[in-house]
Amino acid sequence: MLPSSQLSKNQIDRLGARLRKGDISDDDLRLLDSYRRSFSEGYEDVVSRIRDELGLEPTGRPAKSTTSIIEKLRRESVRLSQMQDIAGCRLTAADIVEQNDIASRLGSVFEKVTIVDRREHPSHGYRAVHVIVGFRGKLIEIQIRTSFQHLWAELSEKFSDMVNPGIKYGSGDNEIVTSLARTSRLIALVETLEKQLVDDKLLGEVEEELSKAKQLLLELLEETRENIPGARGD
Amino acid sequence: MIFLIEYDRTIGRIVTLETFQDSEFQRAEDSRLELELSLNQQGVEREVVLLEAATEDALRKTHRRYFEDLSELTSAPAH
User: What ipTM was assigned to the predicted interfaces of this complex?
Assistant: First the structure.
């Protein structure tokens, strides 16, 4: 295994170009492995500080899978050395009030932080808050999702696995893409309403109605699956 | 705990799942490389991913896609 510290930016990007083309050699896999391992120190630092300083329990992904790296290289013009999500972790929150709170607390724990709010700018319906932390020249991505944003993302991924890989990027199957987009907008609406009610201290008065709305949302997601041929999972 | 997952996207199911203690991080990374090389030599396309969580239950909540089919994903409440 090549020590990761010996990898130059040029070597990394040339590797990325070969991965993009396909026909990957064992040496390429070894080189990619070395590159991914160079994120370990930053990853471990970020995850342990989230645990120790914030008392939260993230699920970590020390390195993006080869499959996902290759797909991203083919889909976007990004170079391998520029990818921001090679290593990272995920946190789930009950609602957007808690999501905002976690993002804010992360901002106070880490020095070099970039917050990407995908609720304001969803990516093909994907909504979440991503906090990118810099550690000795490496970037570590922390995903914060509410329960509903998380369920939506998992469904979108699963449809992409089982039906068409383009679905999570807004292509491949119009019916599924349209249903997911509609559901994402509905989730945004319910969550924004919920936050407004919390801000106005009115949540207690309409908690039952809000709970019913969320249940309806879950039923809608189930219907999405049931109404789409080839996506029933049977 | 560390989890090494070999996942077949076409059928949406885990093929192999290996667990490691937190102290075995490097061994888990070595196993990931070994598995990727083996699959590459066989010409088999699988997603191989290393994940870390306090427990398998926690992992099943944050990475449901690997463990549940579409039916389970949509019928179970959001975590």
Answer: 0.91
Of chain A residues 61-80, which have a CB less than 8 A from chain B?
A: 61-63, 65-68
Whether residues A152 and A142 share a domain: the answer is: no
Contacts of A77 (CB under 8 A, 6+ apart): none
Nearest beta carbon to residue B47 from set A1, A67, A221: A67
Which residue of chain A has the CA closest to B72?
A233
- Residue A53 and residue A116 in one domain: yes
Contact A150 B71 (CB under 8 A): no
Residue B15: give the domain boundaries: 2-75
Total structural domains within chain B: 1
- End-to-end distance of chain B based on CA atoms, in angstroms? 20
Which domain does A207 fall in, by range?
148-226
Is the same domain home to A68 and A82?
yes
**CATH number of domain containing A141:** 3.30.460.10
Same domain? For A114 and A194 the reply is no
Q: Could you read off the pLDDT of A118-175 as tens digits, one per residue?
A: 998 999 999 999 999 999 999 999 999 999 999 999 999 999 998 898 999 998 888 8
Q: Are A19 and A80 in contact (CB under 8 A)?
A: yes
Q: A164: which residues sit within 8 A by CB, 6+ positions away?
A: A171, A172, A173, A176
Optimal mutation site among A66, A184, A212, A224, interface B, most CBs of chain B within 10 A: A66
Q: Are A184 and A152 in contact (CB under 8 A)?
A: yes
pTM of the model: 0.90
